[in-house]
Structure formats: C-alpha cells, structure tokens
Write a structure and sequence with these properties.
alpha/beta, 15 helices, homodimer, 6-stranded mixed β-sheet, elongated, 10-stranded mixed β-sheet
Chain lengths: 587, 587
C-alpha cells in the first residue's frame, strides 16, 4: 500500500536524494539516454536525457551530460513522453478486473486513469465502491477513483443493488481514495433542482473535489444552467458544434475515443481555433475487451486523433499536461524535474507504440497473464432460480390482444401491435423479438417482458448481466426456449454473456465478478467476447449504426428518453410510468 | 468577513438561483449586454451577454437573448474579460496599505493578487503575517496571502524582527488564510540541503499548498536541483534564454513587469514557440507608489507586454486562465457559467482601460480617497533614540587607516582604501559616501557604518526604513550632519523616506505603518514619493541601470553575493563574515 499521493513524494529523504543527483553529487537510480523529450509545455521535441531518483524526475539535461546511474535505459531514436492520463472511463466495460485492465493499458503508456466504478456501484452498492478503492490502491498504475453519482440512474424505474442518496455520497466523498464526484448523468434533476440530485451535487461541491459531468445534448440555457450548477466537465460530445459550445461554456472536455465517428469533425473544429484549448483532455469512456486487447486504451485514442489531423504534440498535451492541470495534479503531466517519473517511451509520435514505460520511477516489466484472484469478495453469484421457457412467454387470456412495443434500438419509441395468443400466451407480433429482464438480486419476481421491433430477424437468444445501468439479467430472443437456455447458462456462470441457437449455447463469456467482469487474463476474455460477438452475428442481423451488438447492453437504460424494459416493466422516463406487462387489452 | 473561498459559492441557495436564472425562470441580478467576451479558453473574441447571479456567472449567451435582470451594464463596444490575476507581488513596495493597494488595482481590473507579505513579516514577525491575513479577508478584492519563507533572508547576517523556522512555518501554513509558501529565496540553502531551509520547504510541501520560487540565475544542474526540491514557480527571469530554460524545467513562470527592459526579448522568445506555454502567468512583484498611481498594476504589465508584441488574447490568458489553473482555482480565470463573476470590462485589448469592474458579482463603485485606519496594530513607532552627527562618523585612533569599502551599487564588490582621520574619526575616502544601518527595534546598538564607492557625488543624505530585507533604519550621505537630520526626521515620522540637504529636510514620506507603508490615500503617497525622488535627484547623481534611486532600498540585502551593510556590520554572504567596523587597521 502506497502513501497517499502526492504526499508520498515528501517521504524520507527522497527530495534530498533527487537534489543531490540533479547536482551530480550522487548517481541517478535510472537514466534514460539518447532520446528526445516530448515537451508538452513548450511544444518542442528536443534531445534530452532524463535522470530519475525513486519516483521523481530529478533532472532533464543535455544528451550525454551525465552517465552515472544505477540503471540506464537506451531511448535512442525514441520519444520520452509523460505518461498518459485517461480522464474518464469505466473499467467494467472492458469486462476484466481493475488489475488486468491497468496492466494492459500501463504497458501501452497509460499511467493514470480516472475511474467511475458506476457499474460495480449499481450492482454491489457501497461495498462495490469500497472494493474499487481497494483495487485502486493495489493497482499497477494510478487509478483516481470517483464516487458514482447516479446509483440508480433511473430511480423508481428499476431495481439496482443500491441507492446512493446525498448522505451516502457525503460519506463516500470524504474517503481519501475518492477523488471527485463521477459523471452527473441526471441532467434534468440538476437543472430542475430536483432535491435528490441537487443534494448529491451539493455534496460533491462541498467536498472540494471536482464534480465531473455528463452533459449529453445540452445547449443554450440548459447548458448554462448545468454548468452554473457546479459541474466542470463533459465527455458526452455529440458533434463538432456541441464540442464548441461546451468549450465556450468553460467545461473541461474529456474527448472520448469510444465514439470514433465523431472524432474527425471534432479534430477539424479544434484546428479552427487559434490554438487547441488547454481545457481539452482525452478519455476512453468504454472499451470492449477485444478492442482493448487489439487496439489499446488511451494510446489508441491518441493514435486515431493524430491520424485525423491533430498535431501530435497537441494531442499528447491534451492527454498529459491538460489532464494533470484539470485534476490539480501538479506532480503529473510533464517530463520535468520535480515531477513524478511517469514516462512513456514511444517509438514515435505517430504510432505511439510504447517501447518502455516507467511508472513512479520503476520500469514496467513483462506482464504476467495469470488470473486475478483479488475479486472473491464480489464473486458471489446471482440470486436467481433456474428458468423454464414459460418464463419468457407473455400471458394473455383473450384471443387477440393489443400489445405495447418498443420500436427501434437506441433511440426507442413507443409502438403498438395486435397479437394473437396460443395456450394462454401471446405470440410475439410480426417482426418483433422478445426481451426479458429479471432482478438479479433474487427479489423472486418473474421476468418482465417486452416486444422489440426494429431489431431485425433473430434465430436464437442472447443473455447478459451487463445491462446498463442496473445490470439485471437481460435476455433477448426469437423464442422462449433459447432464451431459457441462455438465461440458465448465465445463471450457472454466475453472470456473463451467452449466445444460444437451436437450444444450444454457441458461445459464453462467464463474468463471475459481480456479473460484470472476469478474473481471467485479457487475451482470454477478449477471445471469449469476440466469440460471443461472432456467434451473435449468426443469430441476429445487425444494421449499423444503431442496430448493433452493443445496443443489447443499453436496451435497459431507463434514464434515457423513450420506453425501456427494466426488472419493473416497460418504463417511460418522461412520464415516470411503468407497464408491468406489454398487454394493453383485448384487440 | 466572507466565507472561505471557493466554498462560499455553495452557501444558501446560490446555485439554485443561478440555475434558475440561466434557464430563464428567474431574472439575473446583473446583465452585461452589448459587449464582446474575451474567451481565453478558445482564444476568440465573440459577441455575448453575461448574466450574473450573486457572485456567480450564471449564463453567457447570444447578444440580446435575455433582458430580464435587476440591473444592467451596457458593455457596447467593449470587451468583457476575466478579472486579472497577479501571481506574485509585495504590496509593501507600493508603500500604501493593503486596502489602498487593492482599491487602486481593482479599479483597473485586477481582481486577484497573490501577496507575499515578506516585508511585514521581516519587521513584525508572526503578528505581521496574522495582520496581513486579516487585511486580506477585509480587502476589496481577492488577496491570496502566502507564508513568507525567508525571515530573515540572511540568517546571522542581520537582525530582523523575527525568525521563522520550520516549526513556525508549519503553524502558519496550516492557517486557512495562507495559500502557499512564498518565494523561496535561499536557493543555496535549498540545493545544498541546508537543514533550516530544507525544513521550511518540507513544511511547504507537506501542507499540500504550492511552494513558490525565486530561482534567480539558476541554470543547468542547479536549476534541476532547485525544481526537484519541490519548488514550482519562478519570477526572477533575467533573460529570454533564462525564461526558456525555466519553462523547460516545468516551472510556472510569473513573468514580472518590474523589470521592463527584459520584457521585449521575453515576448520575442515566447513567440518562437508553437504557442505561448500555459505555464506562463504574469505578475508585478514590486511597484513604487508613483508608478502604481500613474501606470497601474498588472493591467500595466498587460499593456506593455501587448505593446511589445504578444497577441492580446495570449497575454490576457496568461493573466487569467493560466494563473487560475496554476493556483488550482477553477472558479476563476474565464468568462463562463459557474465561474466567479470577476469581470473587467475593458475599452479594448490594447489600452486595457477598465471601464467597469465586477468583483464577486458586484460592480465596483467610485473609490473613496480617505486614509485607511485599519493599521493601528502595526503603527507603533521605531525603538530608536535620537541621533547626533557623531553617530554617523567612524571612529579611528591612528592618523591614517586602511578601510574596507563596498564598491558599486547592486552588484557589490569588496574594495579597500586609505583614509585620513580627524578628531578621532575617519574622513570618508575620496569618491565615497557613507552608509549607516541601525537596528530599528531598539537593540540600542550604535549604527554600523560603511563607505560606498561608485555611487557618484552626493550633496546631502537619504534615510529610509524601507531597506531590504530587514528594513532597519538605513542612511546614506555625504556628511554626518545631514545624515543625522535625515535619521531624526524618520524617527519622528515613525518610519519612511527623507531627503536632506544643507541640514534641512527637502522631502519626506512618512511610513508609520511598520515603517513600511502609509495610511494616506495613494495619490498623496505617490506625490510624496515622487517629491522624495525628485529631491534625491538634486542630492545624488544617478547613472542607470544600477546607480539609481531604487538601489538605496537594496543596499542592505545581505542574502545577495558581495558585501552589504546591515545592522550587524559589513557582511559577506559567501563567507558568513561580518565586519563590525570598516576600519581594517593602520595604513
């Protein structure tokens, strides 16, 4: 367990050792020589050697000026950059444990991440957040953990594992391991001064720690109001114009890599300013395991944003110095004496391939690929009985019934259809698939059901316990038999993703840690995830950009506008209504 | 007394009022309309109106979009800028009280200043710092007070009013009103790990508050060492090259207006970077009262630096957003919702003439010009008996003596001369003037004496209790009679500056508050200071850049290299020796 940062730098005689080494009175612990330093302060790439003492950079000096060092690292032909800082993400999206995630991105040069453990909190409550803080203190790189602000994100419309009110958050925000209030998603609550959300934001502000935002689609008076409420950042950029208005509103921007299609226009817009604003930072937000394994984390964002035309040094500054200043961490973000020796030695500033990584003064060695055993506390199974196919049928008495439907993935709309019945059950209307959600915590309630239209033709089922934001067991399918097989497979796996066709499990990714992540090594999880995705390509017919595999994970996100199915029924965020059955009456 | 900032913004229902006003549900308290906003984030100057609620900016919106406001301010044709932030200064240099200083600069658009009450501390000790913090809490603008780190600045070489060791600073740094450790001047102490200075810096770092620097002349290994020790800023820029190496070292730069001759080259150097670094801030450091009255404070720096070629928006950003980020004050530094309504409405971005100033949401009215009565606590006179002319003669027995001399102002050197004696006293050597320093706190010791060469021909005397850094009573003169008249005049005035010729006081500026500042209004102090300066032009023959009136205030600065006269004698910072008399022996 480390001392709380940045105080750790004042421990023992570290400063004296660094000063002595800087003056040449003592050798360095580590000397990086022969490379160029990416100076994100002046914007120059200049030949310089870097002397490190303990976790500190002691000296940045002309090439070859010093040779006395306990260890050396040849950086010839390479660029020594500050370690990357990812200003907003959910580790859970990568379906691996915090340690596994951090090892993966650290090897790529990401030395600091800002983590909102929103999913663990929604499932496991305070215990989940406490566990997250513990994981952060044991992590191989720096995790700045935030207090999830929206547990649940749709109060009254779903059953989550916990309910964080202002009192809860006051406690959590006082923990030293908590570095701020995580993305405030309930924007309406903030700007209409709904007491619960107002109280939560007030606690965030009173803590003196930053309040991170989620200002999706806000503009004009509503944007002014949201920012005036005390929120200081946003990662929910939807267009170049939206980016501009958020910058002008004074928000720190966490420009995210997860919405790649927006990045080229954003880069172009940023180029139209006299300079890239220093309030621009970069983040990943959500990265699926196969993408993490194949492409990386924030390093991949840097690579893409540079490819789209942002000068590399500007992109690098956003990912380092700007982020450090936003976070109030003057010990981070630059290759300069007195700062922390978090360094990424990149092949160049185009591929950003990390040839070596120094974290807190220590060169990172080869990663091991063993399972992470640190998660027993949250690996306790789901509170669910086994399922029969009748669980995934909708009861109805009369011969023909009017049923409510949820039309179109992602931007959902209410619809209505007439359906026939057989044996006391509704036959799904033409062109629909069935969705079911059941409380994962063992409330004992039957699955709630909905008919989805606009999801194409399915030949099988998909079950997931990753289902935003309450992560109840969620099943989609063309028939009740496959749905039951999928649900039982996930129950047996204690959570995860399963693709089923013809009564047989075609692919399965067990996620036994809180039903959200796996303890297995990243390549294994990435492989299993890719296999599930591939199996689903056979079961469903996707049609980007909205009818995609990813949409399955957001179909229960009841805080968004339009109808969504949760464990309580079909919800409507605008009216607050909940339909416990899609059957509206006799046709 | 205000609530501690920035927490004050969370008091009562301020946020709700601001949010409601932003959405149009309630009127603003104040609406600035018709102007352009200087957007230091994006670098744009764009037409926009600004709605203010209490101390908060609630809305920045398109021109004319709103009209509902309790009060309005017509900004047509003008530029609405963030209030200016001066990142390093000593109010004492302006010889007026904190309130008077703040009123003067606030009217010019300077809403925040970072004050090192170094002079008050050296004279009045902890009581002086406590008083400074109290003055800050009552000030008309925002004073961020720092804990003076170098009291005394030359331990063992002078008698100051106090001695702040690490234990003292630990206490002071814990006060909520103290925002950091002020400029660490004892650079040698830092990099040679002298225990006293090391302990002081350690307390600064342990407090979690920033440690401000003074890295005069440091480069290469010594600069690396000084920065590695934990110091994070510097204002002692001596050249464009020095500026570059300090920026590369990762220091925040407080580029100061007090050394105007350096600014053009610095501006040129900054233009050679791809962009002006975001670690650049601006400060005044020291401004004499006549300059303050005539030209202003940080607004004048902005004016000059722009005239020397820095794009106005870049200069303005350095003086606002960059400073706010350096200070960790996310509520300051930009015209944006949710930030503090510290606004300067400038005529344009060339003259930077403040047509209106809003501080904490309140428009600043006309200043009154009454004396500031808040300083009784520190206006207690000097502990000095009256002087006779024999006090300013150097005793010697023999007929001819060898005497040590201090050669050249500012960059002093040791010299030696042969002098005759008369009546038991040394006759000042050819081409010298006499300098005397006496402990102002009533130690009862006789004045210590020195002969200065290279100061030209004098016809009279000058006495000052502003005499860095211990501010003991300091007298310069061509003859003992005038010196005694000057010293007695200052004793009667309880401190200040006096110019004397032919046995008569030609000009006097009383500075009865700690012998450093006056309670009178700025125009009066500026006028009296100018009169003293003018009188001194008749008494001395100046020869810039070093033989100037200003040099009188630094002739006792014993921490600098070379010989300096203090109340203990002629000191040598390098050897630590002190000569109690300039007489070396018989010739």
């Amino acid at each position: 367990m480390r001392l709380e940062e940045p105080r750790d730098l004042e421990a023992g005689n570290l400063r004296t050792r660094a000063v002595d080494a800087a003056r040449g009175a003592k050798p360095f612990d580590l000397l990086l020589h022969g490379g160029c330093v990416a100076d994100v302060i002046t914007g120059q790439i200049r030949p310089a050697d870097v002397g490190v003492v303990g976790p500190l950079i002691a000296s940045v000096h002309p090439p070859g000026a010093r040779h006395d060092s306990r260890a050396t690292l040849n950086a010839a032909g390479k660029v020594i950059a500050p370690g990357l800082i990812d200003t907003h993400l959910h580790i859970e999206s990568s379906m691996v444990t915090p340690r596994t995630y951090c090892e993966a991105v650290l090897a790529r040069g990401v030395t600091t991440i800002v983590w909102d453990p929103h999913e663990f909190a929604n499932v496991c409550g305070i215990e989940g957040v406490r566990w997250a803080v513990k994981q952060a203190s044991d992590a191989p790189n720096r995790i700045l953990t935030l207090a999830p602000s929206c547990v649940p994100s749709a109060p009254g419309l779903e059953t989550t594992g916990a309910d964080f009110d202002a009192d809860t958050l006051r406690d959590v925000l006082a923990w030293p391991g908590i570095k701020g209030l995580a993305e405030v998603m309930d924007m309406r609550g903030v700007i209409t001064r709904e007491p619960r959300m107002m109280g939560i934001v007030r606690e965030g502000l009173a803590s003196g720690k930053p309040v991170f935002g989620h200002a999706r689609g806000l503009s004009g008076p509503d944007l002014n109001a949201y920012v005036a409420a005390g929120v200081t950042s946003d990662h929910e950029i939807t267009s170049a114009e939206d980016l501009g208005s958020k910058l002008e509103a004074g928000l720190f921007i966490e420009l995210r890599g997860s919405h790649d299609h927006l990045l080229p226009a954003c880069v172009e817009a940023l180029a139209s300013y006299p300079r890239v604003p220093q309030t621009l930072t970069l983040c990943t937000d959500d990265v699926f395991p196969d993408d993490l394994w194949r492409a990386g984390g924030l390093d991949d964002v840097l690579r893409r944003i540079t490819r789209y035309g942002m000068p590399a040094i500007e992109a690098l500054r956003a990912a380092t110095l700007n982020a450090a200043l936003r976070l109030g961490r003057h010990d981070l973000g630059a290759v300069a004496p007195g700062r922390r020796a978090d360094l990424a030695v990149f092949s160049d500033l185009r591929d950003f391939r990390a040839e070596a990584v120094i974290f807190n003064g220590v060169e990172i060695g080869a990663r091991d690929s063993r399972p992470d055993q640190s998660c027993d506390q949250l690996a306790r199974g789901l509170g669910l009985r086994s399922f029969g196919s009748e669980d995934f049928l909708v009861r109805a008495d009369s011969g023909r019934v009017r049923v409510a439907t949820i039309d179109e993935p992602r931007f959902t709309r209410w619809g209505e259809a007439v359906a026939s019945t057989a044996g006391g059950y509704v036959r799904p209307p033409e062109g629909s698939i069935t969705m079911a959600v059941v409380n994962r915590h063992g409330a004992g309630t039957a699955p709630r059901m909905a008919f989805l239209r606009g999801w194409g033709a399915w030949r099988g089922a998909f079950c997931t316990t990753v289902s935003h934001d309450s992560h109840n067991l969620t099943v989609f399918g063309s028939n009740a038999t496959d749905m039951a097989v999928a649900a039982n497979a996930i129950r047996a796996a204690r959570g995860g993703l399963a693709a089923v066709a013809d009564g047989r499990v075609r692919a399965l990714l067990p996620l036994p840690v809180a039903g959200l992540v796996s303890e297995q090594p990243l390549p294994d999880v990435a492989g299993a995830f890719a296999a599930v995705k591939e199996a689903m390509d056979q079961i469903a017919t996707w049609k980007p950009p909205y009818r995609v595999f990813k949409a399955c994970f957001g179909a229960s996100l009841a805080c968004n506008p339009g109808p969504h199915l949760t464990d309580l029924g079909i919800t409507d965020a605008e009216t607050g209504n909940v339909l416990t059955s899609p059957v509206l009456g006799a046709a």
